[in-house]
Write a structure and sequence with these properties.
By secondary structure, this protein is mainly beta. It contains no helices and eight strands. The protein has one domain: Sandwich (Jelly Rolls). The strands form two sheets. Strands 1-8-3-6 form a four-stranded antiparallel beta sheet, with no helix packed on it. A four-stranded antiparallel beta sheet has the order 2-7-4-5, with no helix packed on it. Helix content is 0%, strand content 44%.
Length: 99
Amino acid sequence: MSAATKVFTGIGNELIIAADEHRDFITIQLQSFNSVYLGIGEVAQDATGIMLMVPGCSVRIMGAKSRLAIYGYASGTTTVGIETCEDLEYRPGSFIWFF
């Protein structure tokens, strides 16, 4: 089990988490206001793949796909949270942000 964050330093593609043949589960959550596009097993690109758009958005990946390296393409300084514990369940608070 591990919990970590990845801070993107600028616009472009960066590794979020390296491949791990023993990982069976991963959740990635956007923690800032700049969006991130994800590349699972391949480099991420702008406007391609899964997009985390607003803080609190998350993606849960299980099985073989979770073992691959995961990259992100950020639109600026951005932070994502990373959790590899399968028993984690995120529930947003009572306040909902509208953009």
